[in-house]
Every structure is written in structure tokens, then in C-alpha cells.
Design goal:
Length: about 60
């Protein structure tokens, strides 16, 4: 469950929104948990972007 909490913290930081109580709870996370969550989010974003570009190129006839 701590990975889910780390993912929420990373996504909230990405979008720039986090309530005070939730931000306080994030202090209990270990650094490596936040790093792993950030790497997972970055990997997911890269894969989604790659798929989007491939789809657009395929539709455009490239």
C-alpha cells in the first residue's frame, strides 16, 4: 500500500495539487519509495507518448 501512497504523492506533485494533511502523510514515505514511484510514472508517460506518436504516424500514412 505504500507504493500506492507514493504514486499518489508523485502524481500530485506532477500536477501541483496536494492538500495539507495528505502532504504531511507523505513525509512518512522513504526516499526510495518516491524514486520508484516517479520512475514508474515516467515510464508510463513515455510509453503512452510513444504509442500516441505511433498512432498518429500510422493514421497519417507514414
Amino acid at each position: 500500500m505504500r507504493l500506492a501512497q507514493a504514486l499518489r504523492a508523485v502524481l500530485a506533485a506532477f500536477f501541483g495539487v496536494r492538500r495539507g494533511r495528505a502532504a504531511g502523510a507523505d513525509r512518512a514515505l522513504k526516499g526510495w519509495e518516491v524514486v520508484v514511484a516517479a520512475l514508474l510514472v515516467a515510464l508510463l508517460a513515455a510509453v503512452l507518448l510513444w504509442g500516441l506518436v505511433r498512432g498518429i504516424v500510422a493514421v497519417a500514412g507514414g
